[in-house]
Structure formats: structure tokens, C-alpha cells
Amino acid sequence: MSKYYLNYLDELESEAIYVMREVWAQFQNPVILFSGGKDSIVVTHLAKKAFHPSKIPFALMHVDTGHNFPETIKFRDDLIKELDARLIIGSVQESIDTGRVAEEKGKNATRNALQITTLLDAIESNKVDCAIGGGRRDEEKARAKERFFSHRDDFGQWDPKNQRPELWNLFNGKHFEGEHFRAFPISNWTEMDVWNYIAREEIAIPSLYLAHEREVIWRNDSWIPKSEFLVIEDDEKVETKKIRFRTLGDITITGGIESDADTIEKIVLEVSAMRKTERGNRSDDKRSETAMEDRKKQGYF
Amino acid sequence: MSINNNQLLRFTTAGSVDDGKSTLIGRLLYDSKSIFEDQLEAITDTSKKKGHDGVDLALFTDGLRDEREQGITIDVAYRYFTTPKRKFIIADTPGHIQYTRNMVTGASTANAAIILVDARHGVIEQTKRHAFIASLLQIPHIIVCINKMDLVDFKEEAYDTILRQFEEFSSKLLITDVRFIPISALLGDNVVNRSENMPWYQGAPLLHTLETMHISSDLNKVDARFPVQTVLRPQREGFIDYRGYAGRISSGIFRIGDEITAMPSGFTSKIKSIQGPTGELPEAFASMSVAMTLEDDIDVGRGDMIVRSNNKPDASQDIEVMLCWLHNESAKPRAKYAIRHTSNEQTAMIKEIIYKIDINTLGRKMDDSSLNMNDISKVRIRTTKPLMVDSYRENRITGSIILIDENTNETVAAGMVV
């Protein structure tokens, strides 16, 4: 006799598909925020399932800092081709060139905060009314308070203390002209769930997540990849290490960890024994206790 | 992997300000090894700065800047942990301001509620409110954790008294499964590990209880309900005639060949195929997201509900609901609101306020027709078109509604169909 309950991964999958279909039904012009990271890849995979056998009905929006891992860009372009989807690019370089934002200075300068302006500009100019993200509530303490449907005012800002209550599975995506929503279908997933799902579904991910040899320097407690954008100080030494990345962001701030996990199965095992949070290697979150909350309020992912 | 058979359990925690709720959650996460080193380091530092002895486990649940500064929880926060037996989602709801609004939110999707009682103070008004809201929201399982047992010398009498107090007042509530566990969140007794200080307690510790309680019957598997979210029409090679109704099954089981009725139109047909997340299925059941095709080309769209023909919900424009007002702007008499029920949205008017619950005495106030923030009232609602509703007691998904103020787009109320 068959069982009539779902396991946790199937439950999370059905929940995410439900959220995605609600987005499609409640908004005029929703997009998926695609970073090339595993979470946005999983969201895209779930979108494919939610609308099968129809084509995925969302465009993919990529906020390009210009400081990319080349592997991420190739992965993105291949996926777009496979899905036959539309790609919208918001370019941070363009925001700098047109004087919308100014580049940070100094050794720890990143384009992380600059993305906010580019993202909000891209949302506005493309008349996007809902941007679907791969944010998860387990990632960070400010994200633990996120709704599935999260309102942004006409400045693109999040007001965490004044959010709409979200009961049962009744999502309220009503908004005025100029406002938009962020939707987070995998809110209830943890890093472990994402990896287990990638393993189960055999979802392709950028090779950067798998252990590989790379030239790196030790900075802010993690291995920062050498790249043309990285300013190396005199007291910093370039070494070759076998590393992998737990999250993928701007190449200048994404730190790797030493690892031998070169298959998804090995990553699942490694993550289950991991004793540090995945964003622990992201220097953008380390600037202050409430770095994520402050950026999110302004309109960050 | 065996872990892939594990179920997901959602629970909410309720307690008054100093009942030790944050400490309990911190303890659960800490003892189940769900806290990472860098989190622990950050909390240890903060504990030192604040001059606490040792690690203040309650700090794990602080989120927003204001909460860290004021040492309070403002909004529902979600926490996650996994054991070899289950995955857990905690809806951590604040105990004081807006407690009704937040607890109702956290309770709406919960399988279980943990109600904290301070062993020194016993059952207080707040406990009664929490139990009432848990019963109103029909949380299937209630666990009363009698906390701070260390402060009453781990005596059985304290536990017995509270158990009796709770049984007495809750006998008039709709609660089917309630358990009592004596704990010390601060010291860890009976949270994850069995207490050595309370040999008189023969039951299981909290985590074991959460890991093993029977939850696969929490969803209604009898009344087959499928609200249509959207219609899939690929119109591409190989799928030219495909017309799939996409949605998440609210309750019950659907099988290929089942005779169905589309409501409210009343058209009937049979299920031709069911597409699940993993492919074609012979049957699908509650909480699965699927796409169905039908034998006949009938007119079905978003807001309609596909049900088995021999078991239909009520289609009604007049519904009675227990309404919880969630917004600081009070209800305006005879104002129109958007009402959302499953995937259906209509316009509604609150026609009559039948009574208001006095949250302190749990009695009825018959002469109070205002609807203010945190009020719970029985009201009669009229909608422009019929809603396909079941009673909330039978079906938490097809028995629930929200009201939206279309002038502000804010969600102002949540209701449970009586």
C-alpha cells in the first residue's frame, strides 16, 4: 500500500512550486533574480517543474558586477540557451560609468553594495513587479524574518518591522504602481536541503562548487581567489590550494574553503559535518552585526 | 539515504515575556548541534559584552537591529533544524506586543504548538490566551512545557498543579492532543536530554516527542479539494492540445479516472492525467503541487476548485467566520474588502458582528461591534460571488480566508470558517 504523506524534501518542493505559480498568477511581469549561485539555480529548476510542459514563463535577471567568475557567466549563458528563456542584465559597470554609483576604494573595496542601485534600476526600467530570489531564511538573521511575498516600496526599500502578516498559504501580492515584490520560494530550505535536492535531482551547478586547485590568498579567515580585480598587499602571499566555494558572489569577496569534495555526494557529506555557516566566508556580511539587514532595507537581494 | 523518508514538522512557540521561550529555542538548537561555530562565537562575544555569565542561548533568536538593541522579538522569525529523524521549522512568535497577530500567523501552518508555562507562576491569563489561539487555529498537537523546574526544586507537585489547572480550563476548548513536559530550558533538563533531576517524570523529553509524534494524519485526506492556481497551455510541438490545471491539492486524494466537478460552474468530467513534480502519477494527495488534465474540455480557471463529484464543499456567498483583526487601523463599518480564499479572490463586506471574544475571560461580548487590532470576533461576511468553503475545523486550507484593504493593499484580517 502506498503512503499518503510527503517526505520533507517533497514537501519543500511542492511548497516552492506553489509559491512560483502564485507569483505567475498575481503579477504582470515577474522575473527570476539569477546570480549563477546554487540557490538561484535551484529556483530556476523548480520554475521549470512548476510550469512543465510549458516553457518557464519568467525572464532571468542577472545583476552583473563585472567582477565575475568566468565559469558563472558561461554557466548562465548555457542555461539560458537550454531553457530558451530571456536574459535581462543589469550592469554595475554601467551604473558606475553613468555616475549612478561610485566605486568603493581601498583593499576591501567591493561592488557588493553598488549592486543595490543597479538592481533597483533594472527592476524599474524593465517594469518588473516581482523579482523571485533564492534567499533562504536560514542564511542570515535578517532573512529569518522574510515573507514568501515580501513588499518593497517605490524606493525599493524593505520595512522589516511593518510587514504584511502571511497566514496559511494565502499570499497578498497587491501593490501600487512603482512598488514591487520579492518572492522567495525556497524560504524554508536550509543549505543542507539545497544540496540534498541538487543531489537527488542531479541538477547541474557551476564547477566552482566542487573542489579544485586555485591560486588564492588568505584574507578575512578565508581563501580569496586571485583575479585581475584583486589588490594584493605586500604581506599577502599567493598560494595554490585545493578549495571549493560554498556560496558564489562577486569574485573579490567570495572566499573558498579547503576541501576535497569534488562530487555532489561528497559535498552533501561535507556540509552535513560543517561547523560554520555558509555565509561565514562572505566578507560582505562581516562588516557589522546587522550588515545584511541594512543592505536588505535598501533593496538588496 | 534513509533521511529522505523523513517528514517535516512545523511548530510554533508561545509564552509570555519571561517564560524562557528564546532560551528554549536556543537550547533545542544548541543541544541538537544545529548551531554553527561562527554563530556560537558571535553569541559568546555578545553575551560577554552584555555582562552575562556564560552563553546567553536566547541571543540565537535575535534578528533585527531593534530586537538586538531592545532585547525583544518584534516579528515572527523562522528557525530550522534537522535531526536524524525529522526536519523542523520553528515559527518563533513574540510573546508581548501584537501577540495575537503574530501567534495567529505562526500557528496557521503549524503541526504543533509549544506553550510555555513558568513553573513558579502556573497557568496565567496569557497561557489561556495561547491555548485558545492554538485551539482556534486548530493546531493538531499541543505540548505544554512547564519551564524553570529548577526554580521549584524539580518538584512533582508544581508539575501536577499546572497540569490540573490546564486540564480544567482547556476542557471547553477544542484540543484533541495535549502533552505536558517538565523542563528547564536554562539547564537543558528534558529538552533534548532526559532530566536526571526529575526521575518521577516517565514521559519523553521535548525533542523526542517532536521527533516521534504522529503527524501524517494532520492533513485532511478525505475531502478531495483542488483549487486551480493557473492553467498551463504550452501550445508547442507535442503539447498543442494540452490544457493542464495547476495547483496544490488542499486535501484528500485524487486518482486518474475520478469523477470530478469544477466549482462553481458545476461542470463534470474525469481526471485524465496527473503530472507531479517527478512525472506522471496515478494518484496524488494533499499538499502536492500537481497539474491535472481532464477528459473533457470544460471551462476551468484560477479561482475555481476541482472536487470529487460525490463530496463537494459548500458554495456560498454568506459565510460565518471567526475573524482575527490584524491591522492597527480598525475595521470600517460596511466597508468593502478584497477577500482571498484559496486561489479565489472576491469582494466582501462584513455584514454583522455576532460577538467578540473577551480574550481574558474567553467569554463572549455581545454588544461590542468594533474590530480592532488583535480582536477575535465571530462575524458574518457577504461576498460578491460564492466561495467554495469547508469548515475550518475540517479543513484548514479551504476553511481559511484573509481580508485585504484595497485602499492600502494591507492584509487586515484572517478568518476561519465556522
Structure notes:
Chain A is an alpha/beta fold. Chain A is 31% helix and 16% strand. In chain A, the strands form 2 sheets. A 6-stranded mixed β-sheet of chain A has the order 3-2-1-4-6-5. In chain A, strands 8-7-9-10 form a 4-stranded antiparallel β-sheet, with no helix packed on it. Chain B has 418 residues and is an alpha+beta fold. Chain B is 17% helix and 35% strand. Chain B contains 7 helices and 23 strands. In chain B, the strands form 4 sheets. In chain B, strands 7, 8, 9, 11, 12, 13, 15 and 16 form an 8-stranded antiparallel β-sheet that branches. In chain B, helix 4 packs parallel to helix 5 (125-136). The radius of gyration of chain B is 24 Å and the shape is globular. The chains are: A alpha/beta (301), B alpha+beta (418). Chains A and B meet through helix 1, helix 2 and helix 6 of A and helix 2, helix 3, strand 2, strand 3 and helix 4 of B.
Topology:
The complex is a heterodimer of chains A (301) and B (418).
Chain A: H1 8-26, E1 30-33, H2 38-51, E2 59-64, H3 70-83, E3 87-91, H4 92-97, H5 114-125, E4 130-132, E5 149-152, E6 180-183, H6 191-201, E7 212-219, E8 222-225, E9 239-245, E10 256-258, H7 264-273, H8 291-298
Parallel strand pairs in A: 1-2, 1-4, 2-3, 4-6
Antiparallel strand pairs in A: 5-6, 7-8, 7-9, 9-10
Helix pairs in contact in A: 1-2, 6-7
Chain B: E1 7-14, H1 21-31, H2 37-49, H3 65-70, E2 77-82, E3 86-92, H4 99-107, E4 112-118, H5 125-136, E5 141-147, H6 156-170, E6 177-182, H7 206-212, E7 225-227, E8 230-232, E9 244-248, E10 253-255, E11 259-263, E12 268-276, E13 279-281, E14 283-285, E15 289-294, E16 305-308, E17 314-325, E18 336-341, E19 344-357, E20 364-365, E21 376-389, E22 400-405, E23 410-417
Helix pairs in contact in B: 4-5
Whole-angstrom Rg of chain A = 19 Å
Per CATH, the architecture of the largest domain in chain B is: 3-Layer(aba) Sandwich
Flag low-confidence runs of chain B.
none
**How many strands appear in the DSSP assignment of chain A?**
10
Q: Which percent bin holds the helix content of chain A?
A: 25-40%
Low-confidence stretches of chain A: none
> Largest beta sheet of chain A: what is the strand line-up?
3-2-1-4-6-5
Biggest interface and which pair forms it? A-B, 63 and 78 residues
Q: How many whole angstroms does the radius of gyration of chain B measure? A: 24 Å
Mean pLDDT of chain A: 88
Number of strands of chain B: 23
Estimate nothing, just give the exact number of structural domains of chain B. Answer: 3
Q: Using the coordinates shown, work out and report the CATH topology of the largest domain in chain B.
A: Rossmann fold
> Tally the helices of chain A: what do you get?
8
Q: What count of helical segments of chain B does DSSP give?
A: 7
User: What is the terminal-to-terminal distance of chain B?
Assistant: 43 Å
Helix-strand topology string of chain A: HEHEHEHHEEEHEEEEHH
The coarse overall form of chain A would be globular
Which CATH architecture of the largest domain in chain A is right?
3-Layer(aba) Sandwich
